[in-house]
């Protein structure tokens, strides 16, 4: 047997070994589930999103997954305080939104029930963290040659399990663009307030690396003590020049105390995003606190800090 024959045999074996046939059972049963989503915050009214789950064998048409005629009920400390049977229109067609015109209280427990014909009743319970985070900003370093700003966030942690999220935003004013008979005109007398989410990074070894434009952590390593986090953000300015108007630039840092449910949801979704292109990674199960369904209801309490950038 010559070398050429041996090579052809090896290539044939390799090619055949790379083929994988997956037979899908047409009779495979898939049970639809209700999918819930929503947040509780004392400064906002309540919106609950409802959809049905989707099998991997279904097409990508989103309209069939929103549920506009479900019965959504909210209980506060065991007492029914709101019910909605009609969803409001939404631009994202994969779910339907049910709005409730009241704000949740910090010291109350909330139970959300969603009922829809053909599904078991899905429920979730959540409470807003009682206290805001105790934090302040120190050691601000503004780089004159780049838009990067370095600063230290000092957190005074309490005894007990705490979960944190840190976000950065730029806030500025810019002229309004008005449509006229001769086309769009820049109106520098009518300024609009704009807010943009900023990149946020840290070199702290206590913080996981896979979060995107947010810092999320718990207090396992510093419970009940002060903890300093070195942060870097890139400030985004208005697209208009400062010579045209006074932009009143601000750098805002939001420190959220998260419920355990919200923290677990964010941690697993960010980890899944981080590992989605790693073919050797273990599948990540997205956290859910919904019984008889999927999704999650989370809550948080916010502290707003401003970084001086003068």
Mean pLDDT: 82
Main β-sheet description: 8 strands, mixed
Uncertain residue segments: 3-20
Count of runs of 4 or more consecutive helical residues: 2
- How large, in whole angstroms, is the Cα Rg? 25 Å
Helix proportion range:
10-25%
Structural class: mainly beta
Order of helices and strands: HEEEEEEEEEEEEEEEHE
Overall 3D shape: globular
User: What is the total domain count?
Assistant: 2
- End-to-end CA span: 81 Å
Tell me the total number of β-strands: 16
Multimeric organization: single chain
Bin the strand percentage: 35-45%
Structure write-up:
The protein is mainly β. The protein has two domains: about 35-125, Immunoglobulin-like (Sandwich); about 135-285 and about 300-305, no CATH class. It is built from two helices and 16 strands. It has helices at about 5-15, 260-275; strands spanning about 35-40, 45-50, 70-75, 80-85, 95-100, 110-115, 120-125, 135-140, 150-155, 165-180, 185-195, 200, 215-220, 225-235, 250-260, 295-305. The strands form three sheets. Strands 1, 2, 5, 10, 11, 13, 15 and 16 form an eight-stranded mixed β-sheet that branches. A four-stranded antiparallel β-sheet has the order 4-3-6-7, with no helix packed on it. The longest helix is centred in the last third of the chain and has 16 residues, at about 260-275. The termini are far apart.
Q: Keyphrases for this structure?
A:
310 residues; mainly beta; Immunoglobulin-like; 2 domains; eight-stranded mixed beta sheet; four-stranded antiparallel beta sheet; disordered N terminus
Topology:
Elements: H1 3-17, E1 34-40, E2 46-52, E3 71-76, E4 79-84, E5 96-100, E6 109-115, E7 122-127, E8 135-142, E9 148-156, E10 163-180, E11 183-197, E12 200-202, E13 215-218, E14 226-234, E15 250-258, H2 260-275, E16 293-307
Parallel strand pairs: 1-16
Antiparallel strand pairs: 1-2, 2-5, 3-4, 3-6, 6-7, 8-9, 9-14, 10-11, 10-13, 10-15, 12-14, 15-16
């Amino acid at each position: 047997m010559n070398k050429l024959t041996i090579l052809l045999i090896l290539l044939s074996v390799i090619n055949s070994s790379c083929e994988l046939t997956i037979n899908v059972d047409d009779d495979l049963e898939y049970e639809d589930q209700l999918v819930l989503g929503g947040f509780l915050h004392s400064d906002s009214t309540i919106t609950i999103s409802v959809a049905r789950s989707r099998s991997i064998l279904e097409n990508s048409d989103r309209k069939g997954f929103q549920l506009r005629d479900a019965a959504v009920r909210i209980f506060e400390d065991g007492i029914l305080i709101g019910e909605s049977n009609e969803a409001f229109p939404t631009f994202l067609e994969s779910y339907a939104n049910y709005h409730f015109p009241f704000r949740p209280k910090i010291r109350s427990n909330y139970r959300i029930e969603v009922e829809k014909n053909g599904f078991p009743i899905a429920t979730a319970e959540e409470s807003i963290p009682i206290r805001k985070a105790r934090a302040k900003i120190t050691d601000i370093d503004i780089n004159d040659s780049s838009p990067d700003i370095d600063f230290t966030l000092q957190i005074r942690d309490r005894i007990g399990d705490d979960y944190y999220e840190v976000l950065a935003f730029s806030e500025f004013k810019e002229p309004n663009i008005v449509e006229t008979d001769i086309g769009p005109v820049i109106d520098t007398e009518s300024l609009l307030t704009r807010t943009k989410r900023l990149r946020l990074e840290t070199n702290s070894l206590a913080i996981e690396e896979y979060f995107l434009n947010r810092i999320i952590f718990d207090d396992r390593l510093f419970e009940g003590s002060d903890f300093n986090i070195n942060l870097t953000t890139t400030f985004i300015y208005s697209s208009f020049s400062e010579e045209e108007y006074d932009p009143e630039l601000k750098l805002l840092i939001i420190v959220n105390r998260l419920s355990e449910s919200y923290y677990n949801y964010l941690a697993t979704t960010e980890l899944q995003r981080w590992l989605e292109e790693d073919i050797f990674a273990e599948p990540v199960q997205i956290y859910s606190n919904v019984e008889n369904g999927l999704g999650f209801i989370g809550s948080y309490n916010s502290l707003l800090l401003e970084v001086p950038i003068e």
